[in-house]
Amino acid sequence: MKMKTIEGADLTIRRTRVGDFLELTKPRITSLVLITTLVGFYMGSTAGMETLLLLHTMLGTAFVAGGASALNQYLERQNDARMQRTKDRPLPDRRVFETEALLFSLAISVSGVLYLLLFTNILTGMLGATTLVLYTFVYTPLKTRTGWATLVGAVPGAAPPMMGWTAANGELDAMAWVLFGIVFLWQMPHFLAIAWIYDEDYQRGGFAPLTITSTGEDSASRQIIFYCCALLPISLLPTTLGDTGSVYLFGAIALGLIYLAYGMAVAFLRSNTNAVRLLRVSVLYLPALLLLMVVDKVR
């Protein structure tokens, strides 16, 4: 009985450890990355989806995205320890040693890039490598230095659908850039809503340049409206280019107007309550738009 108890405890510890390393990869963000990659691959497939190639693309992208997130947490471990929303992450909470996290992060991110190079194509692998470098070694250090970091961070965030597209057909054409533009512009009101909600927490964590206090409510409000307005026409381009039909077109218009309405509520009323609502709508907007795109793809 005692031996079984010890074995059970060891199994629990191992499961906890696996969960801690998985948490380093930010599973929710990685899941969204994979959804956008899948949509990019599907939209870029002209003669039916190649299942094996899709699996290679998804696996390599998951490694790159998870590794970038883990490296981000390693580099920001001291900042995270000062913030309420991040102090319980594996590194600040000391559930994972720093050396372990660094080796794990490097191993899966580099493996992801090499995997994409070997099993998809060079263009997709290079996009993965660029995404990794921009997110980890440009965006992450800039977050404590300048508010422009948000724009820089939106670039690697918008790359996954483009990677899916290039993996499927091997080239960057207009639709690939449209997918990039949609996700890029979507991120900005999303990020600004988060900054509005966690303003004080970001200041405690050393990310003052990203706070609404630093940006100013007037500037943040203008930016939210600007990016919501810019997103609306860009989101209609898939139909203009002939890749989607009228169902997507009218759905994109409706979703864009809803996103803009919630953005305007934040801009004019300037409250955390409305920022929370904008954040929730942003989380629903992108999957809904991508689903419409998939359903109404012109074959």
Write up this protein.
This protein has 299 residues and is mostly helical. The protein has two domains: 1-172, Tetracycline Repressor, domain 2; 174-299. 81% of the residues lie in helices and 0% in strands. It contains 14 helices and no strands. It has helices at 2-24, 27-44, 51-75, 77-81, 98-119, 122-142, 149-169, 174-197, 199-205, 212-215, 217-235, 237-240, 246-269, 272-295. Helix 2 (27-44) packs across helix 7 (149-169), helix 5 runs antiparallel to helix 6 (122-142) and helix 7 runs antiparallel to helix 8. The termini are far apart. The mean pLDDT is 94.
Distance between the termini: 62 Å
Number of strands: 0
Question: Which CATH architecture of the largest domain is right?
Answer: Orthogonal Bundle
Helix content: over 70%
Number of helices: 14
CATH homology superfamily of the largest domain = UbiA prenyltransferase
Give a short overview.
The chain has 299 residues and is mainly alpha-helical. The chain has helices at residues 2-24, 27-44, 51-75, 77-81, 98-119, 122-142, 149-169, 174-197, 199-205, 212-215, 217-235, 237-240, 246-269, 272-295.
Highlighted features:
299 residues; Tetracycline Repressor, domain 2; flat
How would you summarize the topology of this molecule?
Layout: H1 2-24, H2 27-44, H3 51-75, H4 77-81, H5 98-119, H6 122-142, H7 149-169, H8 174-197, H9 199-205, H10 212-215, H11 217-235, H12 237-240, H13 246-269, H14 272-295
Helix pairs in contact: 2-3, 2-7, 2-14, 3-5, 3-6, 3-7, 5-6, 6-7, 7-8, 8-11, 8-14, 11-13, 13-14
